[in-house]
Design goal:
four-stranded antiparallel β-sheet, 235 residues
């Protein structure tokens, strides 16, 4: 999953001018030819709306925060997965992807962001089968994935060392268990991976440069995919 919010009706806090110019737009333009994200999967809300949830949001109203194309890449997996966006992970967990900055697209000497809070893209949770949880616990995660967390790896009381984002937000999985995070680039699947943060309060507390429209992020990923395909053809 990837957390999203729906802009307020008057968009008081995040101006359209800023949202229309997401970070690295010049270096990685938005591919507008592909299918668009569908806001009904994550954020459908009928009139008059409940709480802070805006009724009938459009794709332009759905925003992601604390990530941008500069930290992302793409990779092609065998079907039925296909092309995916590769989200930030630690270097030691990287299995290989075509970074959006390949070919010195960005400023000189820029390296791919890994564990920067401003680009992590909080995933808001995770789902796994019983066999997958067993794999996490017995094979993937140093010190195990499940309580009592009494292995030497944990160095004392882990509940004091880690915030809720570590446990329920997925940091444990991609920051410690070496799992990779991917977003489908099929627009329908991509739309189903977005999870609505219904408090809608991040847009009132964070700087506008931390936000990007979910559909624009997908469009920039498509641009990177097109460049990756061109690189493969030229190889």
């Amino acid at each position: 999953f990837l957390r999203v919010e729906v802009l307020g009706e008057d968009n008081t806090y995040l101006g359209n001018q800023e949202l229309n110019n997401p970070k690295y737009l010049t270096e990685v333009p938005i591919d507008t030819d592909g299918a668009k994200m569908d806001p009904t999967y994550c954020c459908k809300e009928e009139e008059p709306g409940r709480g802070k949830m805006r009724p009938n949001p459009t794709a332009d109203d759905v925003v992601i925060w604390e990530t941008n194309i500069g930290a992302a890449g793409v990779r092609k997996y065998p079907e039925p997965i296909g092309w995916v966006g590769a989200m930030p992970v630690e270097d030691r967990a990287e299995v290989g992807s075509y970074w959006s900055g390949e070919g010195s697209v960005y400023e000189p000497n820029m390296s791919r962001p890994r564990r920067l809070d401003a680009t992590l893209g909080q995933q808001a949770g995770w789902m796994a089968t019983r066999s997958q949880v067993e794999y996490f616990h017995h094979e993937a995660c140093p010190g195990g994935f499940l309580p009592p967390f009494d292995q030497p790896h944990w160095k004392g009381d882990p509940l004091q060392r880690h915030a809720v984002e570590f446990w329920s937000g997925g940091f444990q999985l991609f920051g410690q268990c070496f799992l990779n995070r991917i977003l489908s680039m099929d627009s329908d699947r991509f739309s189903r991976q977005l999870l609505y943060h219904t408090a809608n309060n991040k847009q009132t507390t964070l700087r506008v440069d931390k936000f990007v429209r979910a559909g624009d992020f997908l469009g920039q990923l498509n641009t990177v995919k097109n460049r990756a395909e061109a690189s493969l053809r030229a190889a």
